[in-house]
Amino acid sequence: MDGAAPARAAIPPGGTGAAQDRRTLVRRDFLRKAGLGALAGCAFATPEGLRARGLPAAPPLLPPGALSLARLHAHCTLCHTCVRVCPNGAIVPDRSGRPQMIGKPLLDPREGFCQYDCVECTLACPAGALTDLSVLQKHFLRLGVAHLERLECIVVRNGTSCGACAELCPTGAVYMGPGPSGADEPLLDRSLCIGCGACQYACPVKPSVAIWVTGLAYQQLSAAHPRVSHAEDEEMAEDFPF
Ligand code: SF4
Ligand code: SF4
Ligand code: SF4
């Protein structure tokens, strides 16, 4: 699992899986297309598909800057600095019992979500396993993707007022709007989702939430979303030196 610590400032750093990581974080115009490709690739992960199969092997939701599981395996020393610095308590050591995953830091939206304007764990990681990110870079980094099962949502199922997911979503990916019945219910635009987990954290449905987030094989830059101004978009283009 351990390996030479990658250079802190480089994105992506060298080391095992670097070539693949590099492909995940390349120039923005390419990444917009890559992001769409990733969404298409997530078709297998429809709520129905995931539920029908008992939430089978979706990639784990990794802390920002991990980039890929292979890279985390290569560089994480299990010091758990990220676990300690996260202000939301969103990073937890893996408790799945899978031998290769023991203690690996994962995002767990049941415990907390990744705060939109925070980059603390990426700056604190002493091994460079979480690549340093600016807040601006973080705004564009897609960690995972949300899944909504509308028939389990209490708004749809019981006519109860809710919308907690939409209130907490930082990008507007989940929002309230007219559903098939004409009444307002949560709707999900995955193209805007960055996988922060806020929706899952907020959802009050028990025992299984009605909206949840799974990871991606490679963290990717997302397409620009409504929270991002054109000026910020241009700044972003210059911010990534590759
Ligand atoms: S960026 Fe901040 S909120 Fe998100 S996982 Fe890291 S420390 Fe936690
Ligand atoms: S839909 Fe959920 S995971 Fe996606 S950006 Fe919104 S709150 Fe975050
Ligand atoms: S938080 Fe959960 S129950 Fe509430 S509107 Fe969103 S999906 Fe439905």
Task: Outline the structure in words.
The protein has helices at 18-24, 28-41, 47-52, 69-75, 81-85, 120-124, 135-140, 154-158, 164-168, 198-202, 230-239; strands spanning 91-93, 105-107, 141-148, 174-178, 184-188, 211-221. By secondary structure, the protein is an alpha+beta fold. The longest helix has 14 residues, at 28-41. The two termini are 27 Å apart. The structure holds iron/sulfur cluster (3 copies).
Tags for this model:
Alpha-Beta Plaits, two-stranded antiparallel sheet, 242 residues, single chain, 14% strand, two-stranded antiparallel ribbon, binds iron/sulfur cluster, 6 strands, alpha+beta, disordered N terminus
Give the arrangement of secondary structure elements.
Blueprint: H1 18-24, H2 28-41, H3 47-52, H4 69-75, H5 81-85, E1 91-93, E2 105-107, H6 120-124, H7 135-140, E3 141-148, H8 154-158, H9 164-168, E4 174-178, E5 184-188, H10 198-202, E6 211-221, H11 230-239
Antiparallel strand pairs: 1-2, 3-6, 4-5
The site of one iron/sulfur cluster has 14 residues, from helix 6.
CATH-defined architecture: 2-Layer Sandwich
Taking the sheet with the most strands, its summary is:
2 strands, antiparallel
Nearest-integer average pLDDT: 78
The total count of strands amounts to 6
What is the CATH class? Answer: Alpha Beta
Total helices: the number is 11
Low-confidence spans: 1-53
Heterogens: iron/sulfur cluster
Kindly estimate the percentage of residues that lie in beta strands according to DSSP. Answer: 5-15%
